[in-house]
Amino acid sequence: MGMHEFQIIQSYFTSPPLRADLGVGDDCALFRVTQGHQCAVTSDMLVAGRHFFWDVDARTLGHKALAVNLSDLAAMGAEPLGFTLSLALPAVSEAWLADFSGGLLNLAREFNCDLIGGDTTKSVASLEHNGLVINITAFGQVPAGAAIRRDGARVGDDVWVSGTLGDAACALALLLRERSGEVLSVAEALALTALRPRLECPMPRVALGAALRGVASSMLDLSDGLAGDVRHVLQASNADVEIDCDALPLSSPLKNLNLEQECPLWHAWRDALTGGDDYELCFTAPVTQRDVLAALSIHVGVPLTRVGRVVEREGEAPNVLWRSENSPEGLVHMSEWRGYNHFS
Amino acid sequence: MGMHEFQIIQSYFTSPPLRADLGVGDDCALFRVTQGHQCAVTSDMLVAGRHFFWDVDARTLGHKALAVNLSDLAAMGAEPLGFTLSLALPAVSEAWLADFSGGLLNLAREFNCDLIGGDTTKSVASLEHNGLVINITAFGQVPAGAAIRRDGARVGDDVWVSGTLGDAACALALLLRERSGEVLSVAEALALTALRPRLECPMPRVALGAALRGVASSMLDLSDGLAGDVRHVLQASNADVEIDCDALPLSSPLKNLNLEQECPLWHAWRDALTGGDDYELCFTAPVTQRDVLAALSIHVGVPLTRVGRVVEREGEAPNVLWRSENSPEGLVHMSEWRGYNHFS
């Protein structure tokens, strides 16, 4: 690398703060929280070889490292203010640093969110481990008491999701096959091209999250798949949920790939329900809010889909009932596709 | 390891928040900043094999990981509010987790500072690299406009330091020799026992930092040695500085070790000036504040020592003039001890 820590920070990670009072360069950064607001904080650590490929494009990596944190702020209904970045760096090139910080700071500017501090250190690497570790802690603000938490879902509420589900999971599965040397079919290659940005450049639903304050009763962002993530809401809200699989919002590329491969639709559901990296919002809202949500969806420009409803807790542990008109008994058994590999 | 991320967080890193509105368990944590205050933020990443020994005691590691961040808050005059913790974990035992979180949360309680969120992930490790990475982002609050920044030093101001300097550096040098198989002399072994807590369990000068608001004109914490760190103040404040080496505060164990080994005093100065990990505060203050500082030192219970003064900038780059009555020309040349190894 050859560059000293201070040079790296000065060259690639210092931009004049848009709203913070004091940015990079002192013992601490300083920012203000608007009166009557709470500060919201979230933190994510990404490890090379675990959360991303060693050789992923540095620009998309910079984008995604910040995007996943802004998605957490969105999921509370918070407005981004700033973030800190810590990097354990292997011997990377200046070109890599320029791309990484470019992707990162572009997204930051888009959301008026300042890089206000952090830490840069040389990592300990070995042949099979390049040692890159990225940690971002993001700060936002939300009017006091208006944050949309996981524990507010009430029996009878609708369950909603934004955008489409399963795109990133499908892209990842195709990418893994391609990297292992397999030749993809034309349909698969087309699907990968269409869906890859959903895996590598997710756009956090910040405006939607803020617009849902006072409308949604509970919310989280989908990072590990709806099937698992919705249980966090149920756990916090002490309820169960019914999901209508026929209603799950699927993108055209994902649906088309299933049709081409003559797979039953639930192969796409598996991506939509158990795949990670959606970074869509999942929220509950009273039935009385349906008209408001229809208008809000158009205003924010993000499709919203009603996929289920909150029901009374039956047992000890949170339970999700998966329904489908296309299934003989009207019920889908998750175990049917657990462990099934669509692409093998 | 065998434990799932959620279990680890629940078992070891969840304690009811003392002051935050919402702690671990949602997409974000929530806390309030007192009206009329700014939020101060700092972040530090520690990598095993670079910042600490693989086999360091987990309890002291947990303590130190938080202490270095609280020291940054102290250096702004900020009061700690909370922190997030991100861990990339190799296959560590539950005993390790219990010790690490114990050391961490003990210190957190002492400063009324909540662990309110973070991330736990499995690291990518190899034989020569156990892969443990720790990132803490700490935030505090300070009355708006009262933060003590690096850019406030004025020509004529005194330069002060808290506590004693060089203890951690001396302990580290002795420890490295011991680990390499050398047998320490009795004097050295005694010095190591006395100074080791200064290396492994530094106590951040939080109360002192806050008490210096309105008194100090600039401040930072000493993590890389006074000789290097003071240049950050000079850079930001556009000034030079004269340091009186004879005035440097040295602990008895450090002085005694030098006497026993019949080393000239400047061997101890080298530790005091170029060694890291002091976590003392270095600040400037107008001459008119000397009496206030004498009283404040007694009130807070931390020794303060006047070690120099701020002078007009002479050249382009910041310059430090090292003075000593014991030196023939009254000047000490840093280059004399650059690269010199006290212990070899």
UniProtKB/TrEMBL annotation, chains A, B:
GO terms for biological process: thiamine biosynthetic process; thiamine diphosphate biosynthetic process. This is Thiamine-monophosphate kinase. Signal peptide: none annotated. One of its GO terms (molecular function) is ATP binding. It holds the Pfam family AIRS_C. Reaction mechanism of ThiL seems to utilize a direct, inline transfer of the gamma-phosphate of ATP to TMP rather than a phosphorylated enzyme intermediate. Its EC number is 2.7.4.16. Mg(2+) 4 binds at D27, T42, D72. Mg(2+) 1 binds at S43, D44, D119. Substrate binds at H51, D277, Y340. It comes from Ephemeroptericola cinctiostellae. Catalyzes the ATP-dependent phosphorylation of thiamine-monophosphate (TMP) to form thiamine-pyrophosphate (TPP), the active form of vitamin B1. Mg(2+) 2 binds at D44, D72. InterPro entries: PurM-like_C_dom, PurM-like_C_sf, PurM-like_N, PurM-like_N_sf, ThiL-like. Pathway: Cofactor biosynthesis; thiamine diphosphate biosynthesis; thiamine diphosphate from thiamine phosphate: step 1/1. ATP binds at G118, D119, R150, S223.
